[in-house]
């Protein structure tokens, strides 16, 4: 009989993940025991568990470690990305507390799925071989396919779930096929094994890498693999969209960063397709956003462009690049979570506030909400004194120092940003429209989701004005 | 934390307090003016201290800000050049804010005042910044208050469209500048570039200067980049356009003086022929376009294009008098366009139109308005004894030394200036009055609003040496002249 040696598990290393999985189970158990547990209780358990996980994560910071035979690593490629996933989880749970938030009529399943989904994201960030990467991506994706459809009352939500599951499975197919080819080309599944094959890439290796990038590109919503994004973002419940926009990107970028740094380690020729899809994403995302009148679709296109921006951090494949990527992802997380929180608050969780018309003259009716949204829009546009601006300066510096592809990407980033001025200022323009022709809007009564808005504002402003507080932490 | 660190934020702080006073309170009027006055007093203290003692702990301050792949510091100062811009900003802002509160209804007045004060803060910040990143931060932030003021307060559909023209043009300029700024930092690894010399290759310099120049020309604006100017100037409420034309239009010229010319001297010489052509076209195009306008504000807007083209001509003539002459013209134009736009606001309020030929004859109805308008108009056409003449004369004499042909052609614009300014003055003031019957004479408040600006125009016209003798040409400029 064949002996399978189980690798030892260091539970200290996996404790943030374990805390999250335990939280999900507790939510399901509480629901089982007490059938009347309210959404507030269940989401609060989720938030508490996320905080525990976050504390464990903070304790690991600065002490890289591996376990499970080296397949699971906590290091500079995972800490910050994990933290962003957890922040997105907390924000999504907070937004689920708005009065009319959708939860698929089963708050326990909804909250537990969000938590398990985040656990998948943390597995991705820690994965050092192709199998664990795939495992993490599937854990994340399967939960999200269901969550996208939890707006049970709306046709658009069903459509979103179906689109997401079909195209997502296709992407997983590309990913696993690419992984297989990479394994064939290098003889190992660990990223470190691939590094040897990358020195003199065979046709098999390059093909495998391309397929792998296609799969990753789907998850990141990079053009030309972005077509699912606007529909899925629009159809999913607001809290799920917010989570999707931030956590999925953070986790997938951690995979991409680790792959590029460990396998290539330098600005290799083979990375050219990655730069090309970054350029395409910046154009498609910003141009596509011009005509959008639904704010969730607008932010979907925006996230396509932003994903393109973040790829610039990899240009040159060097130490400051990773810090730049983490900084921009953190900025991206705060401004997107904040913007989605405003959408949730403006409509009390219903879809009524997704259309840009709902924001006409908002400043004169609900000035605080409008001012917060303005800050998030400015940050997305990269206006100074916000996190988005510092992030863009870092990205441009990274790209301009990285040769011809880098300069090309920097120029496209600047052009894309100009187009995006129209996109984001259009929202501001609507909010500051003279009040007399404004539609009445319901007065908000939710207090708790304001925590998400306030957190977003704090993040955007602190990262924008005192970036050193954060940058000193992530500098590698 | 020194006073100079927080100086740019003084108007903003008053603006924030204004937001929170009860609607309709007297403080909504008083606080903004107090804020502008406070900023002006501090600016005078700084300038006086600088000119008496040179640079000191009072007039400059530096704190580390960001250190990563590059370093940036929160570095602020007033010096021989920036003093004049800071003084101009804080001086013109006082009448602008004093004139402002009649232009917004009670419900919106607080945020209107706040945005004007925030705009002043970005301008003061821009002119005190000694770090390129800090400079850029204010450069871009300037967009916001103007965009919001045009969007939410000017009220007309044309104004809301003008907001887009303003945003897209200046946003484009800002982003090109960002490319240049970051491109420079990739070479220098620091944003603390003021007063430093970097050895940059000619190709690098050429590209970076180009990026800086495009941004600065958009903001000024100069000929091919001026399309945002007529709608913005025409649609802005008078206090806002007084600040845009009087102060913000100097930001690009300031950028040339403090950043582009000293940092990239070789590229500046390479680009000079093109810049001189741009200057000449702006001077002539602005003058001819002003001749053809019926809208009073658009007319003055085009005259701005023409006059600021003269400053560009001076800067790229690389004559020994370039810098003092440019500064005199910059300050003088700030005062004149400030007073003109505020006065045009008074007239529009009275006759209900900006159409030059729709009313006429204000002299009979409002003799005080007429006499003040006369002074402003004479200053604009460059009558000797007023500051406009001193600036233009010094520029033309200086530029003649190195660029006689271009200077000779630009003289044409001085002649045309007399025509369009006199046409403006005559059509508005002389002839038969055809406007609304209940036209009012200038109120004492309105006369006091413009009085300091007119006094300064007289003062600089009679004693231009007061300004020019305090201007020392920095070493970077001397080297440009030697290279000529």
Topology:
The complex is a heterodimer of chains A (476) and B (484).
Chain A: H1 11-33, H2 39-60, E1 65-67, E2 72-74, H3 79-95, H4 107-126, H5 130-148, H6 155-186, H7 191-199, H8 203-220, H9 229-235, H10 238-264, H11 272-290, H12 295-311, H13 319-346, H14 362-365, H15 367-381, H16 387-400, H17 403-431, H18 450-465, H19 467-474
Antiparallel strand pairs in A: 1-2
Chain B: H1 3-6, H2 10-20, H3 27-53, E1 60-67, E2 71-77, H4 82-100, H5 106-128, H6 132-141, H7 143-152, H8 157-188, H9 202-219, H10 229-235, H11 238-246, H12 251-263, H13 265-291, H14 296-317, H15 322-351, H16 362-365, H17 367-381, H18 387-402, H19 404-429, H20 444-462, H21 465-468, H22 475-483
Antiparallel strand pairs in B: 1-2
Helix pairs in contact in B: 2-3, 2-5, 3-4, 3-5, 4-5, 4-11, 4-15, 4-20, 5-6, 5-7, 6-8, 7-8, 8-9, 8-10, 9-12, 9-13, 10-14, 11-15, 13-14, 13-19, 13-22, 14-15, 14-18, 14-19, 15-17, 15-18, 15-20, 17-19, 17-20, 18-19, 18-20
Can you walk me through this structure?
The complex is a heterodimer of chains A (476) and B (484). Chain A is mainly alpha-helical and 476 residues long. Chain A is 72% helix and 1% strand. Chain A contains 19 helices and 2 strands. In chain A, strands 1-2 form a two-stranded antiparallel ribbon. In chain A, a hairpin with a 4-residue loop joins strand 1 and strand 2. In chain A, helix 3 runs antiparallel to helix 10, helix 6 packs across helix 9 and helix 13 runs antiparallel to helix 16. Chain A is globular and about 70 Å long. With 484 residues, chain B is mainly alpha-helical. The mean pLDDT of chain B is 92. The interface between A and B is large, with 38 and 35 residues.
